[in-house]
Specification:
Elements: E1 5-10, H1 12-22, H2 24-44, H3 50-68, H4 70-83, H5 87-94, H6 96-102, E2 115-118, E3 129-137, E4 144-151, E5 157-162, E6 169-172, E7 177-182, H7 194-201, H8 207-216, E8 223-228, E9 234-239, E10 244-247, E11 253-256, H9 263-266, H10 275-291, H11 297-304, E12 324-333, E13 338-343, E14 352-355
Parallel strand pairs: 1-4
Antiparallel strand pairs: 2-3, 2-11, 3-12, 4-5, 5-6, 6-7, 7-8, 8-9, 9-10, 12-13, 13-14
Length: 356
């Protein structure tokens, strides 16, 4: 189904406060569910007084966020104020996957996303495209929301995210698009969680500056970040907490799932790649190659709806009983300022178009 679209404008604090006030009840529920999920994982590896440890870690990371990007931190604080929620609890709401990595919890829940980039040479209309599925705990789907942000300073943006959270997937009026897939390294630290990094990327007006935001951040843990630029460029950045590798794809198509591809970073991966991630990466690559030269936004909606495979080994996961599900998906055309989004498992008819 289509995604709710909310308009935000003004100073970072004002946008955050409006966000928090409009979704106060949802934010409280989402934060409690995410805290409970992280506590369960921490307890599974023997962390004593897990809730206090988790929230204490979240509290310790707040100064890092303020130093990293003051305007992003102002918006984050505004969300907390508008929702009447403590900042440490809002941090777990935003940074769940990074925080789980900190406690070295086993990741066997099948959670993971499938991302892709398509340069102009592979599209039917000559515009760059980028996007992904967003796969998370099935209960997260009702919290999906889109924002059209018009800050008083900096570029306007369209973002797909969840209530109470900073940017997850999005594009801005400078022609930059960005999204991510989760990775799990061993070198976690007190640092900046990935949604704050993504939010700061969307404040940039050049692709080079956007990449530099990712590589220079004091990251809390690792994610893969894919980016498309205003001149049709595509680039991917694999990160751990302490290391980053910038990948310039050799061809016009690129895909990524939830395991490291760069040899120098594989050694820092917490667990071996799971079957789901390996399958989804291969399947998306095959589908992209088969359509290369004729790819459109509509055809990418179909590709992300693909249910070939079984259980967690599918791009679109909506099988009852699975821990993880495809809770949303997005297709972005940053050169045109267009985003197509769907809440829940994608289908070609389920996406709605949102324009800057």
């Amino acid at each position: 189904m289509g995604v709710r679209l909310v308009e935000l404008s003004g100073s970072p604090r004002q946008m955050g406060q409006s966000h928090g006030e409009q979704f106060r009840d949802d934010i409280h529920e989402f934060a409690e569910r995410r805290l409970a999920a992280c506590v369960r994982q921490a307890e599974a590896v023997g962390v004593a007084d897990a809730q206090a440890e988790v929230l204490g870690f979240c509290e310790s990371a707040l100064p890092e966020h303020e130093r990293f990007a003051p305007a992003v931190y102002e918006e984050f604080c505004g969300i907390a104020e508008g929702a009447d929620l403590a900042r440490d609890r809002l941090m777990i709401c935003n940074g769940l996957t990074d925080i789980i990595d900190r406690f070295r919890a086993p990741r066997n829940d099948g959670v993971g996303c499938t991302a892709w980039l398509v340069a102009p040479d592979a599209t039917a209309d000559g515009y760059v495209l980028a996007g992904q599925t967003w796969d998370m705990h099935a209960w997260a789907e009702p919290f999906v929301v889109a924002f059209r942000r018009r800050p008083q300073d900096g570029p306007a943006s369209l973002t797909l995210t969840t209530t109470g959270c900073l940017s997850l997937i999005g594009l801005n009026e400078a022609g930059i698009a960005v999204g991510n897939t989760n990775l799990s390294p061993v070198d976690t630290r007190v640092g900046v969680m990935y949604l704050a990094i993504l939010h700061q990327v969307l404040a940039q007006t050049s692709l080079a500056a956007a990449v530099n935001v990712i590589t220079s951040a004091t990251r809390m843990s690792g994610h893969n970040y894919y980016l498309a630029g205003p001149d049709g460029e595509i680039v991917d950045v694999e990160t751990t907490a302490t290391r980053a590798e910038v990948i310039t794809p050799g061809g016009a198509i690129y895909a990524h799932a939830n395991h490291y591809l760069m040899p120098d970073l594989v050694a820092l991966e917490a667990t071996d790649p799971d079957a789901s991630s390996v399958y989804r990466l291969g399947r998306m690559g095959d589908l992209l190659h088969a359509d290369a030269g004729d790819i459109t936004s509509k055809s990418m909606m179909s590709l992300m709806s693909d249910q070939t495979g079984h259980g967690d080994c599918r791009i679109c996961r909506d099988e009852p009983g699975l821990e993880a599900a495809t809770c949303a998906a997005a297709v972005m055309s940053p050169q045109q300022g267009r985003l197509w989004a769907v809440q829940g498992p994608p289908s070609p008819s389920g996406f709605n178009e949102i324009n800057l």
